[in-house]
Design goal:
The protein has 317 residues and is of the alpha/beta class. It contains 13 helices and eight strands. The chain has helices at 3-21, 24-38, 104-116, 134-151, 169-179, 184-187, 206-210, 217-223, 227-232, 235-238, 260-273, 287-292, 299-312, and strands spanning 58-64, 72-77, 85-91, 120-124, 157-167, 195-199, 246-251, 278-283. An eight-stranded mixed sheet has the order 1-2-4-3-5-6-7-8, with helices on both faces. The termini are far apart.
Amino acid sequence: MSQRLRLFVGLLALCMLATTSAPLPAQQRLRERIQQRLQPQSENTGRGERASLPPGVRVEREIAYGPDPRQRYDVYLPGHARPGAPILLMVHGGGWRRGDKGMRNVVGNKAAYWLQRGFVFVSANYRMEPDADPLVQAGDVAAALASVQRRARQWHADPAKTILMGHSAGAHLVALLGSDPTGLLRQASADRPLGVVALDSGALDVPALMSQPRLPQLYRDAFGSDPAYWRSVSPQQQLERDALPMLLVCSSDRRFPTSPCAEARGFAARAAALSVPMRVLPEALEHGEINDQLGQPSAYTDAVSAWIQRALMQVRR
């Protein structure tokens, strides 16, 4: 029995006991705590082996793109960089209120894999709840992208060959930026990236998410109670005809509070109606494993890598 399944069985038994013995308000509080525990923990799950960085990799840390201490990114440079290297900009998850650019499951396998293929790998932080709401956070990511593109030539990289990638809350942020490139990206003076890889976002349709009868507190904390705000931070509602091509990786194992694969398919259906290229890639992995295992030898890594290579073919030199 997996650790997650054992946790579920134990919490289910506790919930059944509480239902029969606790007063109604206590039952409700206990159910909410159990739902929170069963929520995917974006930055501390995933049990795969993490690759070490290739020899000769150089890291430039804590590059500022704004005055706040959270407005920083790290740049991982391949040992034998060739002029015109592509850039992969990674945005961590953590429920819009935690996480860090330096965590091993954010960087390890991904950096090792793409550095070996000549990419410059960038991992960015951004301001967090409660000090910055998701719309401000997306603006931070756009500002980080603009800074990376301005500096790209000094790393022998091509700013026109940029791919955005994010996991969990980070996947929501990059999908939001990609849905309307004339919005926050233009405001930050960022050039148009070639595409977005969203790793298991559960917030592609924020109004539908916030309408769920059972909803962990982290979503209420992030998105509040205003339907107009929900629409403003929802990739599906913000999707425009000039949106970026996207690869939507989703965990087929998740069902609560929504199914990320069902969300991704709904998002892709709207994209198809607008002639926006969008692909859904279901994976039988847990939420944290979607993040942690990308870069390990697998059909999953191969599929993501192939999609990125096709996106790069848009650039002709």
